[in-house]
Design brief:
Blueprint: H1 4-16, H2 21-28, E1 34-35, E2 41-42, E3 59-63, H3 67-78, H4 84-96, E4 117-122, E5 128-134, H5 140-150, E6 155-157, H6 158-167, H7 179-191, E7 213-214, E8 220-221, E9 225-230, E10 236-242, E11 263-266, E12 270-276, H8 278-282, H9 286-295, H10 300-315, E13 324-330, E14 335-339, E15 345-350, E16 354-358, E17 360-361
Parallel strand pairs: 5-6, 14-17
Antiparallel strand pairs: 1-2, 3-9, 3-15, 4-5, 4-10, 7-8, 9-10, 11-12, 12-13, 13-14, 15-16
Helix pairs in contact: 3-4, 4-5, 9-10
Bound molecules: aspartic acid.
């Protein structure tokens, strides 16, 4: 067990010695490596990365208020010599199993009354995995990780993804809606006029699932959870999991399981995750472009702002009707976010802080 005193001492030592996350990453790059199908080296999964000379201060951030709880689970892993990859998987599992929100099987269904889930995960060495249009599986994020680690592919969808999950030992959950989702669906059926949902905007007016709000039982109702973490060894990873837009067309997949749109990680630079109207994140290859903006020297917040401004230029006056938010973490542990509209917040956990941060936005 890595105790707190040891962590603080080690952190002080490495930071005092001026070791950056990028240096720490290269310091550990020689031991214990795997090679992925593209010949890119990575650490073996599930194993702690031991190299005390390379310890830096870990950080985890995640979208919306629910991120506070999710970060706790990730933090336990990060402070016990764990991989960022394990932290981001475990962290979002908390939200997936909360069954009272818009992530996981408790979420709102599509317009045919069926919950379909999307998720993806990416590590520090460009290994990535995703599932989309997946039904009846409690932890899509874990299936995404299996796709990454056990197949030569990046993404499996629908029935194929479900078959793969079962073959990997995941249980098929009953095909029933949660109480909250059943009530929302019945309400939606009264109108049931399909049109593209205006995620985060319309929902704030009470039509759908995406506005973070406190439920009568005190739990947070929220949408997609995206999480980014930097571990003690300077490795970044990210995860993203969602039920997508409530009452969406059957088969609709948003940005959240799409590597480069909903999530991107490049250990040389940083990582980014998106939330909001998925179609408009996909159009600008959102998360990967935020990482590129950081590579050009922008801070995480400035990089997120640059992409939000691009979405606004493309959407013109229609930008008023959509919400998109980007959240980024660079390989030195700096964080930032930016949204089209006010109301987006993210949860941060580091050695010194545990808090919710309200992101700046284009419109006020
Ligand atoms: N981006 C997700 C999607 O479009 C939804 C969200 O983040 O609220 O499916």
């Amino acid at each position: 067990m890595y105790n707190r005193r040891k962590f603080i001492r080690a952190t002080a030592f490495s930071l005092g010695a001026g070791l950056t996350a990028a240096q720490a990453a290269s310091a550990t790059a020689t031991s214990n490596t795997n090679t992925d199908i593209n010949g890119i080296e990575s650490k073996p999964s599930g194993q702690p990365l031991k190299n005390t000379a390379a310890i830096i201060s870990p950080v985890v951030i995640s979208t919306w208020d629910a991120g506070l709880e999710a970060n706790k689970a990730a933090w336990t892993i990060l402070t016990n010599e764990g991989r960022a990859l394990d932290a981001v998987e475990r962290g979002v599992m908390v939200t997936e199993e909360s069954l009272n929100c818009c992530v996981g099987l408790g979420a709102n269904p599509d317009r045919d009354g069926i919950v379909t889930l999307d998720a993806c995960i990416m590590d520090e060495a460009f290994n990535c995995g995703a599932v989309a249009f997946l039904e009846r599986i409690k932890h899509p994020i874990c299936v995404a990780r299996r796709v990454m680690e056990k197949t030569p592919h990046v993404m499996l969808v629908g029935e194929g993804a479900q078959q793969f999950a079962q073959a990997e030992g995941f249980t098929l959950e009953p095909k029933v809606l949660s109480k909250t989702a059943q009530a929302s669906y019945e309400e939606w059926l009264k109108r049931s006029n399909y049109r593209s949902p205006r995620i985060n905007i319309e929902n704030q007016k009470g039509h759908g699932p995406f506005a973070p709000a406190k439920l009568p039982n005190g739990e947070w109702n929220h949408d997609t959870i995206g999480m980014l973490a930097l571990d003690m060894f300077g490795h970044l990873s990210g995860s993203c999991t969602t039920s997508g837009a409530g009452f969406k067309m059957r088969g609709r997949v948003g940005d959240s399981p799409i590597i480069g749109a909903g999530l991107y990680v490049d250990n040389e630079v940083g990582a980014c995750v998106a939330t909001g109207q998925g179609e408009d994140v996909i159009r600008v290859a959102g998360a990967s472009m935020v990482v590129e903006a950081m590579r050009q020297g922008r801070s995480p917040e400035a990089a997120c702002q640059a992409l939000i401004e691009r979405v606004i230029r493309i959407k013109k006056e229609k930008a008023k009707d959509i919400q998109v938010a980007f959240l980024a973490l660079d390989n030195k542990g700096n964080t930032g976010a930016y949204a089209i509209h006010p109301g987006f917040s993210y949860a941060l956990r580091s050695a010194t802080e545990e808090k919710l941060i309200v992101a700046k936005s284009y419109f006020t």
